[in-house]
Specification:
The complex is a heterodimer of chains A (about 100) and B (about 210). Helices cover about 80% and strands about 0% of the residues of chain A. With about 100 residues, chain A is mainly alpha-helical. The chains are: A mainly alpha (about 100), B mainly alpha (about 210).
Chain lengths: ~100, ~210
């Protein structure tokens, strides 16, 4: 990581910081202009995942780690998401419909 | 026999054959990653519980009328900034750019404290309007319960993070830790920011 001058080496964090702010402003904007509900939910979740990706890849350096570490961290999250959506989603909806 | 020997050589040469670190990181950093994975499950549990309660009720108070979204936006801004200053501190520690480490660590601590201040103000306001852990004026008790528990748990993580960073700064100034320790503290701090991304989106915006 010694390439370039010191100043250049920190540039990536400035760039990531900038995009995190832009996405946050877009999130707030999406709520304030009252997007249709489904579109709002989809766009907010997409933007949240984009921010998460930027933080994990660049701030937490996972992009520069060995792939085995990235898999060890990301694979459980993937299965967790599937399990939560597959089991809890239908449960919540069935309770809603029984009300 | 020769065949077996070749097999063994192949096994030893692979990442998982022993004799080398499969993840190519030191154990303290690996332990922090594993802790963060398990901590993710904790927050996933809280957020999933919130999701189930909210979907199964079918109605929920309008957050934009209750919370000041600009304040929450500012808190998010502060936390993102503190994550960026932390990234600079870690990078500086690793490349031996000594004069940047302590100032950027302290800037990160300042960000964490400002965030906690914002949260304290928000909670005070919310409680002042009548919100309690098991009830609130908006008629959906689960609303304030999930809010207090989830943001409280996150705020606890931020508080612990502030102490962790102060200890890291102190130990760095005494030259009693390696750059890797700063990096590990950074992993924790970025994780706190990462969790807030989802709390901000799910609790306040959606």
């Amino acid at each position: 990581m010694a390439e370039g001058t010191h100043q250049d080496g920190y540039r990536i964090y400035g760039v990531v910081w900038f995009w995190l702010l832009v996405i946050t402003l877009l999130e707030l904007g999406a709520v304030l202009v009252h997007l249709p509900h489904t579109l709002l939910v989809i766009s907010l979740l997409t933007m949240a995942l984009m921010k998460a990706g930027l933080i994990i890849a660049y701030f937490m350096h996972l992009r520069y780690e060995k792939l085995s570490l990235a898999y060890a961290v990301v694979t459980p999250m993937f299965f967790l998401a599937i399990v939560l959506f597959a089991f809890l989603g239908p449960d919540a909806l069935s309770v809603l419909h029984r009300r | 026999m020769a065949h077996d020997a070749i097999d063994q050589e192949q096994v030893l040469a692979s990442d998982w054959g022993g004799g080398r670190s499969p993840f190519d990181v030191g154990w303290p950093k690996l332990m922090m990653w594993l802790f963060l994975v398990s901590d993710t499950l904790t927050f996933a549990g809280l957020l999933a519980g919130y999701g189930v309660v909210r979907i199964s009720l079918g109605r929920w108070p309008v957050r934009a009328e209750i919370f000041n979204l600009y304040l929450v936006g500012a808190m998010t801004f502060i936390l993102i900034c503190s994550s960026a200053t932390m990234a600079v501190a870690v990078s500086a520690a690793k490349r031996g750019d000594d004069r940047r480490v302590i100032p950027y660590l302290l800037l990160t601590v300042l960000g964490g404290l400002l965030f906690l201040l914002g949260q304290a103000y928000e909670w005070t306001h919310f409680i002042g309007e009548g919100a309690r852990l098991f009830g609130n004026p908006w008629g959906i008790p689960q609303f304030s319960a999930t809010f207090f528990i989830t943001t409280g748990f996150h705020g606890g993580h931020v508080s612990v993070g502030v102490l962790y960073l102060l200890a890291t700064a102190l130990r760095w100034s005494r030259r009693s830790i390696q750059p890797e320790s700063v990096e590990i503290a950074g992993l924790y701090w970025h994780f706190v920011d990462l969790v807030w991304v989802f709390i901000f989106t799910l609790l306040y915006l959606i």
